[in-house]
Amino acid sequence: MTVPAPLATADLPITYADVEAAARAIDGAIIKTPCLRSQTLSDLTGADVWLKFENLQFTAAYKERGALNKLLSLTPEERKRGVIAASAGNHAQGLAYHARRLGIPATIVMPKFAPVVKVQQTEGHGAHVVLFGESFDEASAHSHEIAAKRGLVYVPPFDDALVMAGQGTVGLEMLDAVPDLDTLIVPIGGGGLISGIATVAKARNPAIEVIGVQAELYPSMHALLHGETRICDGDTLAEGIAVKVPGKLTSQVVRALVDDILLVGERDLEHAVSLLLTIEKTVVEGAGAAGLAALLANPRRFRGAKIGLVLCGGNIDTRLLANVLLRELARSGRLARLRIRLKDRPGQLFEVARIFDQQQVNILEVYHQRVFTNLPAKGLITDIECETRDREHLNRLVEALRAAAYEVRMIELD
């Protein structure tokens, strides 16, 4: 393959040659994940959608690429001392897995809120896990303190040239598989992944559009590039990209090579996670679904484009995934809670249940309320959770209840 001509931005922290060197270094130790076209998502969005399944890595995330590239650069003496990192989860697992494989002791500092599945899997790879702080930034500061005290080598999750180059191998594989992609949509936390991918993409084709995506609650890179001061806080489904302060090195690359950064809301992230599971039968975490969330939230912008999306990780807590799926069913009308006002007399609940039966709606749960209500003493309300085929089916049920003179209100999700 012909090496592209160097860009004018040759003073950036990494080059195309650095990414190629990383690809050679990690070859055989990571999975070259598939990049496949999604017919259904293409039909749904009006774009030509290709998915890079980095959630199929052994540790279920792309992070092990950069971690391994960094580990391979260590001297024998540094390997003996061991490494330390701060991570919300995926960098932790990638580093722990390859450190154990190479015989390097690893310590990982994780925020207290890190998903249980990520903590357990990191420990399962042989790392010593320290839970500290409420955010990645607090965990990072603590990891630097430990590194200084114990003489450990700190392995950054994103703001390091070797790590960035390792992550860029995702872009190499995508463009090797689908050379004529004209748009790449990439999640941004600290910026390591998009820095590596943008370096490759712009070297291969300066006209290609590279779009970053951040959660609305953590717009750190977006604010930096726009000269804004934005609060980065809150519980986001995309905790893997919930970074308050982007990297200094990564921000240089993003400023030079990334065309735009879009922000996505929590509902968009939940919808994307659900769609990928129901349509593609693949599990992704919130950060992994950010690219699709941006595509779905901006259909006109991307209609007709040939788009590569990076499903960067699949480490989502199963309880959280269940909640996301149930909330999506509720929003689509397939699950519903109806609040119905009844008269306090025999047979009322039976008559309501009869209407549900006539409409072929499955009742999941019934809750009567007589005390905590502002209704008269002889009045009562009942909440009924039910399962329907779709929104139209639910609307027919509500109409039938109202036609029978019942006062009905749907309890909607925010």
Automatic annotation (TrEMBL):
Cofactor(s) demanded: pyridoxal 5'-phosphate
Domain ACT: 337-414
Gene3D superfamilies: 3.30.70.260, 3.40.50.1100
Top-level EC class: lyase
Any Pfam family: ACT
Sample GO molecular function, one term: threonine deaminase activity
Keyword annotations from UniProtKB, A to Z: Lyase, Pyridoxal phosphate
Enzyme Commission number(s) from the entry: 4.3.1.19
Family to which the UniProt record says this protein belongs: Belongs to the serine/threonine dehydratase family.
Official protein name in the record: Threonine ammonia-lyase
